[in-house]
Amino acid sequence: MCGIAGYVGGYWPDLVSRMNQIQKHRGPDGDGVFEDPESGVGLGHVRLAILDLSTAANQPMISPDGRYVLVFNGEIYNFKELRNELKGKGWVFRSTGDTEVLLAGLAIKGMSFVKRLNGIFAFAFWDRKERRLLLARDPLGVKPLYWVEPKPGLWVFASEIKALLQHPDVGREPDFLAIQEHLARGHASGTRTAFKGIFRLAPMHLMVWEAGRPEMEIREYWNPDLERNETSYENMVEKLREVVEAGVVRQMVSDVPIGIFLSGGLDSSAITLLSKRKTQRPIQCFTISYPSSENQVDQFVNDLPYARKVAESVGFPFNNIKIKPDITHLLPSLIAHLDEPLADPAIITCYLICKLARERGVPVLLSGQGADELFGGYPRYAAVEATRWLEAFPMSLRRMMAGAARALPAVTEGWTGAFLRRLRRVVVDIDKSADVRFMAYASAEADGAICSVFSPAIQALFDGRPSAECSLKMMTESHLTGGNRYIQRDMADYLPNHNLLYTDKISMSVGVETRVPLLDLEIVQLANSLPFSFKCKGKTTKRIFRDAMRGIVSEEVLKRPKAGFGAPYRKWLRYDLHEMWNDLFSDSSIRERGWFDPAGLRAIRKTSDDGVEDLYFLQWALLSLELWAREFGVN
User: Fold this and answer.
1) What CATH number is given to the structural domain containing 205?
2) Is the pTM above the cut of 0.90?
């Protein structure tokens, strides 16, 4: 797990070295640069040593004949099988890890080799003879890869945006359509970022540059095989159990200690219990807890007793981090690591766990991320299905129901307040189509509230555009129906552009690699083939995954509410962050920024504190946005 950087299309002395330096946190164990001034190409790498800790695995890695050069960020979990195959083709390996396997496979088999990879990766592969550069990103988008064209014909790429900004011609202009998406759901959609002109390479895609051609070619190399299962439910439960266990085992390969994000929920508990079956080494587990005083508004489920019980059942060392409100001072530095105004309080809990893991000598953590997207674990899937029958009602009646829902209190402390908040979210958009309703459930804030905090000039840029425009287009183009239509949207957009992205950036900020065993490619392919009824039935989410883990995970965990590493951000914003808010959004700051409407900002604070509207996520997103703009000099 590392950081990569580079350029092609013109020689820029010292650029790669500067890019390496700004990404040094991603690779504290070494760095390297390859430059070919005549061809106008430069490649950089900073290394976090996980497999083959020797210098033989250093990068950039050059083939024995000098023709090929590789920089690679990630892990190839089926590298041992591929290595044996490539040995049979005559390659003599000089190292024992996965980097040289990737180098050899691309040298021998070309671009088609990318389809053979089961792993998490972003890499750049330079063919000196053909003067061809290949960039690729893994099918799920676990590892990030950004690119920009600062001058016609010059292409710069890196694991992090801050590395791209080392080129003097890369601008820092905001993309307000992406920012609209950030404020609605915490992330930008598709390939756009909050920086105008800077893009992500999409998951399951590659880019090819060849000398003499004016443009990069971007194309898809992998496509999920959707809804092709014709086997019984019972048979698929057994098959899923097999592939999940195999996936966890595959992703435990490491030459350094491994730990686990353990929330005590189904996903992380399954990984913990399955990992015990395959190792005699103690694996450190890490969880987060809050004082009850911090949880009066947000009403999180208490993960601590469940997580401790799972760890103790397998004899793994257990580490609990107690969250206090004073940790919000971390927010500015974490936003700097994210590169974008990704709005999720979970970045704080993620950082604290990764920091402690690194201090305890654990540079690899296993995470349960991805199972909710694969197997329908979010309540919004069940909510759409549960409300479909209401679509038969006359529109006038549905509008009355939506209006009644808006009259419910949005923010009240205690369990009753949490219940009413959820009920309000489910019913308030019942007068919309199923697709629009799903995106409302997937969004923390409505477009009207977002628009209200901006100046008239910024509002004019939105021009009535729905923040969900990109996601709605994704769902239409998927040609899927029913619940899998929405699962596929989350797999293509929410997972890579939010959950996986912030986890990578935050964990790598302290030199920790995060792996996601439940997104092993074999598990993904099986899950994609299943009908939605196998995943959700009534109020039961992740139905087939629960049944596959029965006998491995206790009934207590199988039946408990959804767990995860959240944070009591509503309480923080209501009681602990007045000083930060008042500083960031003082009258002078608002005038200097020129983006916001002062009355709109005051209104979202008041309506939230009065319990009329739950606009606390919008407040958190605005804090993130202003901190991002200050950190990166965006105007």
Assistant:
1) 3.60.20.10
2) yes
